Amino acid sequence: MKFLVILYIVLFKTSKCFEIYKKFVISFLNEVNSHQGIIFHCGDSFNFRHFYEDNQNYYLSIHHLSKVNENNIETIMQVNYHKIGLIIDTNCNETLDLFNICSTLNFFNASYNWFMLSDNFSSSIEQLNRQNINLDAEITLAIIDKNASKFLLYDVYNPSYKYGAENVITEKGTFDIKNGFNITLNGTKLERRRNLQGITVNVAIVATGVQENQTLFEYLESTDRPLLDAQHRHSYGLHKILSEKYNYSLFIHRSTSWGFLRNGSYDGIMRMYNSSQIDFSITPFRHTIDRSFLIDHTLTTWVLAPMLVFRHPKKSLRSPFLMPLSPWVWNMILIFIFIISCLITLTMKSDKVKNVTLIRAFMNAVGVMCQQGFTEEYRKSSVRFLLITFILFSSLIYQFYSSYIVGSLLTDQPKTINNLRQLIDSGIDIGIEDTAYNHDFLETTTDPLAIEIYNTRILKNHPEGNYMDVNCGIEKIQKGNFAFQVETAYAYRLIEGKFTDDEICELHQMYLFAIRLLGVTIVKGSPFKQLLTTEFIKLTENGIISYQNSKWQKKKPKCIKSVTKIKSVDLNDTSWVFILLVTMILMSFVIALCEKLHFLLIFKVKIFKKFSYKTKDKNMKIKKTNS
Ligand SMILES: *[C@@H]1O[C@H](CO)[C@@H](O)[C@H](O)[C@H]1NC(C)=O
Ligand SMILES: *[C@@H]1O[C@H](CO)[C@@H](O)[C@H](O)[C@H]1NC(C)=O
Ligand SMILES: *[C@@H]1O[C@H](CO)[C@@H](O)[C@H](O)[C@H]1NC(C)=O
Ligand SMILES: *[C@@H]1O[C@H](CO)[C@@H](O)[C@H](O)[C@H]1NC(C)=O
Ligand SMILES: *[C@@H]1O[C@H](CO)[C@@H](O)[C@H](O)[C@H]1NC(C)=O
Ligand SMILES: *[C@@H]1O[C@H](CO)[C@@H](O)[C@H](O)[C@H]1NC(C)=O
Ligand SMILES: *[C@@H]1O[C@H](CO)[C@@H](O)[C@H](O)[C@H]1NC(C)=O
Ligand SMILES: *[C@@H]1O[C@H](CO)[C@@H](O)[C@H](O)[C@H]1NC(C)=O
Ligand SMILES: *[C@@H]1O[C@H](CO)[C@@H](O)[C@H](O)[C@H]1NC(C)=O
Ligand SMILES: *[C@@H]1O[C@H](CO)[C@@H](O)[C@H](O)[C@H]1NC(C)=O
Asked: Where is the signal peptide, in residue numbers (predicted)?
């Protein structure tokens, strides 16, 4: 009893017992983890300077309430520290004025820890009832309990002053000089403040695919037609969980785009933000500098990864049969076959073996090269030695060649189009998904390659810009020779359903611009920021975001062809063998004709000669008989 009377006198009336007052202020600042305090009082004889000098660790600014007004309050409250403890005596006559000023300037928020001293509970509650107190406010109402010589502490917040909710006052604990603070609150701040009393919050979403026989809510809650507005409906699913958990409902404003800066003003959702029409947006946003003046970004919920997707053209410059060896090696082999045949012929000729021709030696050499053996009988050991070496050489080449072919059939063809430059050079047609961010990117980019793509590959053939919807674009991808810039998270869902295994294996992708992180945004200074940030972290932690991702996003389908079937060499690749065969057949036919002609000619000459001999003989005989 004695204690409290002293304290009460100290706090409100005089400064006689300075040590007690000091202890009280320090324990409050320690309790709120702050070293910055502002004291508003209406007493007249405190010796505060003395206190300040004693405790260099704690910075206190002390103001008489009669000297605080609209003009200087902002300077007083603006201390470069993230947490400020404020101690105010609510029994003063000027308190209500200060409260009204703080209300308009939104000082009842998480940045300030208010400690309000009062000796009358009901009058203090009445004072606070009309104030703009935030959901995240840190207000402790300390009512003096003269009988028990302690303060009774109450926690005060308002789910939403803007939407007309009532102040919520809960018991917080006690404070006395001997034991300090005894806080009995359970759980975290947000856990305690879970009931927003069914207020309706204004939010915005991009929804372009709502059908005529459907309400917006039906559309947002359904998961059919998952290609449409996937990011937005994904995010709606998360916001819905929060609204149910926190007992508020959403008044959804519909828009067609995020909102980009055009001619100095925004469109889409950003315009709603700028006109304070909404508190936060369900549609996730990318962080850009111009937006950050209006909105706060919190957690990333969606990774936007639009890519150029196309079927990689099968480009075999040379046929698979020639591929294993370079043209140099092929030429060297031919040259060596020729040299070997020459050597064999020469050696044999020098040995005066009969029936030796270059052609026969050449055929034998080709036979050896193709692992077919040879028909001649070579007796000279020099020739045999040459042949053995050549057989070894040919079998080494042959081994390498055939294993290369087997190997290349088992592995995938390497993809040769791997960057934008190669894509431009490949001559593949390019289309763009018709979304706001693609329009914005192409119209504002400074990336020279993207500009080149836009000017030379898109605008040239399609003055309108070749924008199309996902279904259309994916059909074109399937037809081939077409690259489509599309958000892959949902495009791959469609592709997986439509494409054959072979087509999936040919799929290739590349970035036109880097991935973008889309996250929850909220209007600057909103009381819901802490709620959304903390809760989205929890949703990530609980795996609910992953669950939503699995509903709305699809990874690139895996190429499973190599497991199920081995690629066969097709006619395109082998045609040249057949062409070669046909030409050779024709050539041999021509050669056969030539030979026939040649034969006939020789035959005729011979017959003619024979005939002339015969007649000569006859003549001779006749002459002889005559003679
Ligand atoms: C508060 O106002 C009342 C009357 O309006 C006055 O009697 C009282 O002295 C004032 N108190 C202070 C601390 O100024
Ligand atoms: C507390 O304030 C209320 C209303 O302001 C008043 O009716 C009541 O008399 C006050 N009580 C004390 C003990 O001053
Ligand atoms: C304080 O004690 C007085 C009598 O001693 C009693 O009338 C009053 O109700 C008590 N007040 C509280 C808040 O307990
Ligand atoms: C804190 O308050 C509770 C309930 O009022 C009480 O049971 C507990 O003993 C107090 N603790 C201290 C350290 O005073
Ligand atoms: C804290 O939890 C205990 C036990 O669950 C409960 O009895 C008490 O009322 C709670 N206190 C507050 C302030 O909610
Ligand atoms: C939600 O708020 C309304 C209005 O205050 C209230 O009637 C209802 O009980 C609350 N629901 C929950 C689950 O707290
Ligand atoms: C709306 O119409 C489409 C066809 O236009 C139909 O497939 C769908 O089932 C209808 N939805 C409802 C809710 O009636
Ligand atoms: C910007 O202003 C110019 C001239 O007023 C107009 O032609 C153009 O269409 C505007 N652009 C947008 C995106 O509104
Ligand atoms: C925001 O709104 C104000 C009017 O409230 C307007 O003057 C300003 O141009 C808008 N800013 C943008 C970037 O749209
Ligand atoms: C609290 O309000 C002040 C003044 O309006 C502002 O500067 C500060 O950023 C706000 N803090 C939070 C956490 O919103």
From this structure: 1-17
Report, as an integer, the average pLDDT of 498-522.
90
Q: CB of 43 within 8 A of CB of 14?
A: yes
Q: Which residues line ligand 10 (CB under 6 A)?
A: 105-107, 109-111, 525
Distance 183 CA to ligand 5 centre (A): 11
Nearest CA residue ID for atom 14, ligand 3: 147
Strands 138-145, 199-206: pairing kind: unpaired
Rg of the chain, C-alpha, whole Å: 46
- Res 54: pLDDT: 57
Q: Running DSSP on this structure, what letter comes out for residue 88?
A: E
- Ligand closest in space to the Cα of 91: 1
Condensed to tens digits (0 to 9), the pLDDT of residues 330-388 reads: 999 999 999 989 988 888 888 877 777 888 888 888 888 888 888 777 778 888 888 88
Nearest ligand to residue 120 Cα = 2
Which residues does ligand 3 sit against, CB inside 6 Å?
145, 147
Domain 199-292 of CATH type 3.40.47.10: no
Please tell me the distance between residue 172's alpha carbon and the centre of ligand 5 in angstroms.
Answer: 10
- At residue 33, what is the residue type? N
- Measure 444 CA to ligand 8 centroid, in angstroms: 14
Q: Is 164 in the pocket of ligand 6 (CB under 6 A)?
A: no
Dist. CA 192–CA 172, nearest whole Å: 11
Mean pLDDT of 595-616: 77
Task: Give the per-residue pLDDT at 615.
Answer: 63
Ligand lying closest to the C-alpha of residue 176? 4
pLDDT digits (tens, 9 = 90+) for 269-314: 999 999 999 999 999 999 999 899 999 999 999 999 999 999 988 7
Interval 426-438: pLDDT, tens = 888 899 998 888 9
Contacts of 135 (CB under 8 A, 6+ apart): 157, 158, 159, 160, 193, 196, 527, 528, 530, 531
Average pLDDT, the chain: 84
Instruction: Measure 46 CA to ligand 1 centroid, in angstroms.
Output: 19
CA distance 193 to 37: 26
CA-CA-CA-CA torsion sign (389, 392, 396, 399): positive
Q: Does ligand 8 come within 6 angstroms of the Cβ of 263? A: yes
pTM metric for this prediction: 0.77
* Residues 6 or more apart whose Cβ sits within 8 Å of residue 420: 449, 450, 453, 510, 512
Query: Options 2.40.340.10, 3.40.640.10, 3.30.450.20, 3.40.50.2300; which CATH number does 15-191 get?
Result: 3.40.50.2300
211 CA → ligand 7 middle, Å: 8
Residue spans per domain, the chain: 15-191, 199-292, 320-410, 420-552
Element (H, E) at 421: helix 420-426
The predicted model gives 39-68 an average pLDDT of 69
Q: Whose CA is nearest to atom 9 of ligand 6?
A: 197
Candidate of 256, 260, 261, 262 to mutate for ligand 8, largest count of ligand atoms within 8 Å of Cβ = 262
Tell me the CA–centroid distance for residue 185 and ligand 5, in Å.
7
**pLDDT at residue 33 is higher than 60:** yes
pLDDT at 260 over 50: yes
